[in-house]
Amino acid sequence: MLFRLCLFLAAACALGACSAQPTPTLIPGATRVPTPRAAFQLPFSSPATATPTSEPEDTPAPSPTPGPVFTEYIVRYGDTLGGISAKFNLTLEELMRVNGLTNPHTLQIGQVLRIPTFIELEGPAEKLLPDSELVYGPAYKNFSIKEFLKKYPDSYLASYVETVDREQRTGAEILQLVAERFSVGPRALLALLELQSHWVTSSALNGNQIAFPFGLIDGGRQNLYRQAAWAANQLNAGYYGKISGRLGVLDFTDRQRARLAWNVNPGTAAIQNVLSKTASWDEWHALVARDGFLATYEKLFGDPAQYEVKRLLPKDLQQPKLRLPLEDGKVWYFTGGPHAGWVDGSPWAAVDFAPADQAGSCWFSQYWNVAAAPGVITASENGRVVEDLDGDGFQGTGWALLYMHNATEERIQVGTQVKTNDHIGHPSCEGGAAETSHLHFARLYNGQWIAASDEKIPLVLSGWTFSGDSQEYNGAMTRGDVTRTAENQRLEGVNDILPDAGK
Question: pTM of the prediction?
Fold first, then answer.
């Protein structure tokens, strides 16, 4: 039974990722790896360099260099190197040389290939939003979507109701849920919604505005939740793609392509990216111009600079002491190395653990997920539990921990104060599509996802340090001279773990 766990989560279902997929078969010579990710999934090796200080924003931006822009392609079911090279108008030899490949028949589903792209067009670098407006961080601690909508009591959004996760929710509740799950800024979501469909201020809307409020004309992604989840994922892809340097090119609906300006800030890259998915090159220019998105944002909220938090991650940021979030004295298996924290637009912030009492089953485990540190529970819904470590009850300030796929039965409640090793919930598949019950664990700081294998702030649990490689879900955990390797299967001495309270 395969134990490499493919995280799609509840939000991924909203993106259409939970539809039936054929079981991947491998290209000749390939190794079995996880189910392929969505088309616009980017790998990340490090988080942003951006807690409030008076220092200037310090997000690194690579200098412009001559030659091609390197974009990335994720190998999918049925791909061959010849087919990929033809798709991008490259010779097979050039594609192999750029990627350091020696055997044209060895590919992995989910493998990331570098694609050299020569592009003449370049987008503008004019700042649309500060970085702190794009993440659900300190700038949003005192912001309420529900209170904001009292300014527009007759708007479509103010009266909207939709069933999400078998629960009726208002428009404000839906956007709040998306902001928290994806950790994206609510004001950015509201401004995009108003720009694309006027949901925020108007009640007289046409059919497409109602069905596709964020502008994505897709019959599988209708209504507010699915549209907002898609938009939030594209915002994350743009934001973290710019920080990592892996987002170099924007694609438009008219098949035009443009370089992302080398000196654009991540917050602006996020807006440019999501708008590029629903517009032609010319339309996009109007949307990112001074009287486009920014004018809409200012109409709703005023000057974005007033909310700016100059630095989201302190230069000397250190992870607090965390234990393995796994019940002591029972055997667990390390089944997923660094992979996306919340759907494919986020960095590789998460790792997975499977209990020994459930093999290939989604029946919830009798084992417990436990608190990795003291804190307060700020969310407990649809498999998802969030713990705030600074105790202020807001997930967007300081450190926060995500425990995902907790069964409804005995799951911890919002507002509970926890100590290290207190029970959080039982591993299950709840909250998304998975092959077996497991725990998906990730970190955030000031609303930013922190990559599990970040060089400066690596994930360390009970003394185990986590690392990854170029393949999502691959990786290792090391403590002293002992190493465990993430595996699809349960292999004694390879990926088994026995948590101990003394560590």
Answer: 0.82
